[in-house]
Write the structure tokens for this entry.
Amino acid sequence: MAKKMHGLGRGLDSLFAGTEDWVTSITEIPVGELDPNPDQPRRTFSEESIGQLADSIREQGILQPLLVAPSGGGRYMIIAGERRFRAGRLAGLETLPCIVKDIDVIRQREIALIENLQREDLNPIEAARGIKALMDQCGYTQEKIGERLGKSRPAVANMLRLLQLPDEVTEMVKDGLLTAGHARVLAGIPDQEEQLRLARKAVEEGLNVRQMEQLAKNAAGKPKKKAAPKELPAELGELQDKIRRKTGLKSTLTGSIRKGRIVLQYSSREELERLNDLLDTLGE
């Protein structure tokens, strides 16, 4: 049977500031009855960090209870506190202190995201995906998300831009090879090939954010190389050469057998008159 404790865990008052009054009783729930939230924004957990937290729990216990919701069959879904759940289980605890609250799914996701965003080590890609999920599921605007998370609208917009990065770059961020600062610089580069090039360079050479900003700035100032013209089919190449020989003018042929364009260029009045004379010989 779960046993009751009284008092509110440290930190939850700030996490839930501005919401309705929360039940102040804390329930000790067996570890085996708790389930992680499948919609948890955080997908990666540092084993080292969990181990350190487990050591702290062995000495001091869990100072902040988990927030859970009934999920049926005598089980509970963890809304906030999965790190404490993992560390407590690793520390060998049989029960964990929990605040039980029946909360709708959307509110669960919002609280889970807020709690994780309050931790500086949350992966920026995971944070961006969590924000995008809230916007899609709740119909929140960037302004509303900013209000709920205590961030400005431009800050929210910059986080969402990270989701447009190539998969290879997002994996570098998730693996800790690139920081959120690196990712924001890369997200401001319109060309994905350039994003990949700079991301790989940053990882290989250990570039900091300021160095990457300078490289991105230099790349933006360089004129883009024009794409090399496609090679003409043999028969069109021969026709282009024939027009040059017959007219004495520079000619450019683009397109295909079925459709294209022929451009003649003259650089003097004499060349123009010669072309006119040539056309006269062709007749009406």
